[in-house]
Amino acid sequence: MRLVRYDSGQGPRTGRVETGGDGDVVRELGPSGPGAVAGRLAEVVLLAPCDPRTIVCVGSNYPCQLAEKGRPRPERPALFLKAPNAVVGPGEPVLRPAGVERLEYEGELAVVIGRRARDLDERTAWSHVLGLTCANDVTAHDYRADGQWARAKSADTFCPLGPWIETEPGAGPWGLRTTLNGRTVQESDTGAMIFDVARILAHVTRWITLQPGDVVLTGSPGGVGPMTAGDRVTVEIDGVGTLENPVAERPTPVVH
């Protein structure tokens, strides 16, 4: 099932994507179950498919990226956080802050939590997962030089998610591709990850209790590179979906 959040004109609504004879439509999901059709999928404004309280990210989780950067293989998942204000949905622009010389894309598989997760066991960790979605772990490379990653990872629009949550993605591994203006810049599959989803969830929940709607980003393969205003970045994951976002300059604030 493909679960979405969308703009109803009267605030965010939750729905599911259904395929019919006339193409894909979005049907509203309410407390009592399926409701009316909100519109054709191509005409509905999709939002980020979840509204996470916590976003936990894993770094250095693909051997190809480690080789590019000359880093040693980690003994355990390397964790950092992105702030919820960074979340945007499919089609929304990634805004490059003024003064940032190198803004980077990082295509990733994102795991959306379905029920409260604390001290998970690797064998049962997947039972706490609602589904999978695509993510772009946008990074202001300049801002990492001082060792403080808050600005580098958590500026507004630095966590595109979507287009939906796929609750039945199949067994995996899932192929992952990132394209920049139609040119493939990252290509791997999740079977290459050093730490798989179950191991990551067990590790994270030793210290951080995850709630429904929270998100775990599982790391980016090699090929991370710069993007600039006017670019379009697409993250495609087999069996999950395709997330596309334009890049634009962040408007300069007016000082009164």
TrEMBL record:
Record bears the keyword Ion transport: no
Signal sequence, start to end: none
Record keywords, A-Z: Metal-binding
Residue ranges constituting the Fumarylacetoacetase-like C-terminal domain according to the UniProt record: 54-247
Pfam entry (one): FAA_hydrolase
Location of the region described as Disordered in the Swiss-Prot/TrEMBL record: 1-23
UniProt keyword annotation of Metal-binding present: yes
Gene Ontology MF terms in the entry: acetylpyruvate hydrolase activity; isomerase activity; metal ion binding
Residue span, Rv2993c-like N-terminal domain: 1-49
One Gene Ontology biological process: carboxylic acid metabolic process
UniProt name for this protein: 2-keto-4-pentenoate hydratase/2-oxohepta-3-ene-1,7-dioic acid hydratase in catechol pathway
